[in-house]
């Protein structure tokens, strides 16, 4: 298994898919280390150690390359969420990028609207996203939301819902600034540590729960998702709205 994993790492490395390659190298190295522990033949142990050393060196080189890409603003990671896939809660998706220095967040999503919008729970999803920010480990003080205004019967519900979230966040020392745009189409989330995440469906990539007492209603790691693509970038300068 270790040999197969490392083989896959090399293939990904040659294809310049460095992020995936690094994960495979790390997994392969761990598996090979277990083999070394179980091997009694000293000659075999030595060969394994030599290979492990080579793979560790390459993994470190890839780490440095990825770090340089981040510093140069060229980092790009893509995550494909398959139809009905689970395990993609906001915590799983964003926690890696919410370092302690994050104090300001920008959310652009045209569909942060009322809870009865055709099978959408957009306001609740935005609230859940805010809850994740409040829990930390980041020290968010300001959240900037740019969305479109519901021109239909749900306008009052949208406004009152956002005002309620705004007031609730204020109790935690967080300011929510809301702006509306009639021409917004893109969906992206930016943190002031340089990370930018673009999700094809915005925050609304979860499927409607089958019932109020079905698994996945409360725990979003267990909630099936719509198919979408997540693109993660790192830039030196995070532009503001």
Give your account of this protein's structure.
Helix 5 links the parallel strand 2 (104-108) and strand 3 (142-147). This protein folds into 2 domains: 1-72, Methane Monooxygenase Hydroxylase, Chain G, domain 1; 76-234, Endonuclease, Chain A (2-Layer Sandwich). Helix 1 packs antiparallel against helix 2, helix 2 packs antiparallel against helix 3 (42-72) and helix 5 packs parallel to helix 6. The protein has a 7-stranded mixed β-sheet with strand order 1-7-6-5-2-3-4. It is α/β, with parallel strands linked by helices and 241 residues long. The protein contains 6 helices and 7 strands, in the order H-H-H-E-H-E-H-E-H-E-E-E-E.
Find the count of extended strands (DSSP E, 2+ residues).
7
Mean pLDDT: 87
Based on Cα principal axes, name the global outline.
elongated
Text of the CATH class of the largest domain? Alpha Beta
H/E element order = HHHEHEHEHEEEE
In percent, how much strand structure appears in the residues?
15-25%
Count the domains. Answer: 2
CATH-scheme architecture of the largest domain: 2-Layer Sandwich
Kindly provide the radius of gyration, computed on alpha-carbon positions and rounded to a whole number of angstroms: 22 Å
- Report the major sheet: 7 strands, mixed
- The parts where pLDDT drops under 50 for at least 5 residues are 116-120, 237-241
Tally of alpha and pi helices: 6
| Proportion of residues in helical segments | 40-55%
Lateral strand order in the biggest sheet: 1-7-6-5-2-3-4
InterPro entries: MIT_dom, MIT_dom_sf, MIT_domain_contain_protein1, MITD1_C, MITD1_C_sf, MITD1_N
Domain MIT: 1-71
Protein name: MITD1 protein
Organism: Aramus guarauna (Limpkin)
């Amino acid at each position: 298994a270790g040999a197969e994993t490392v083989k896959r790492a090399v293939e990904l490395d040659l294809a310049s898919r460095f992020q995936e390659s690094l994960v495979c190298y790390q997994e392969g190295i761990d598996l090979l280390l277990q083999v070394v522990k179980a091997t009694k033949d000293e000659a075999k142990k030595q060969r394994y150690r030599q290979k492990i050393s080579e793979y560790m060196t390459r993994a470190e080189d890839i780490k440095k390359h990825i770090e340089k890409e981040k510093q140069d603003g060229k980092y790009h990671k893509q995550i494909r969420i398959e139809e009905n896939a689970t395990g993609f809660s906001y915590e799983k998706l964003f926690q890696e990028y919410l370092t302690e220095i994050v104090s300001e967040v920008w959310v652009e999503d045209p569909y942060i609207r009322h809870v009865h919008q055709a099978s959408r729970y957009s306001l609740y999803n935005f609230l859940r996203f805010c809850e994740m920010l409040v829990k930390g480990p980041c020290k968010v003080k300001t959240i900037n939301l740019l969305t479109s205004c519901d021109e239909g019967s749900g306008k009052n519900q949208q406004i009152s819902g956002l005002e309620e979230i705004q007031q609730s966040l204020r109790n935690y020392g967080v300011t929510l600034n809301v702006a509306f745009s009639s021409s917004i189409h893109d969906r992206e989330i930016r943190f002031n540590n340089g990370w930018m995440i673009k999700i094809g469906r915005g925050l609304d990539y979860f499927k409607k729960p089958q019932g109020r007492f079905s698994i996945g209603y409360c725990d979003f790691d267990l909630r099936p998702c719509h198919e979408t693509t997540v693109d993660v970038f790192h830039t030196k300068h995070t532009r503001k709205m």
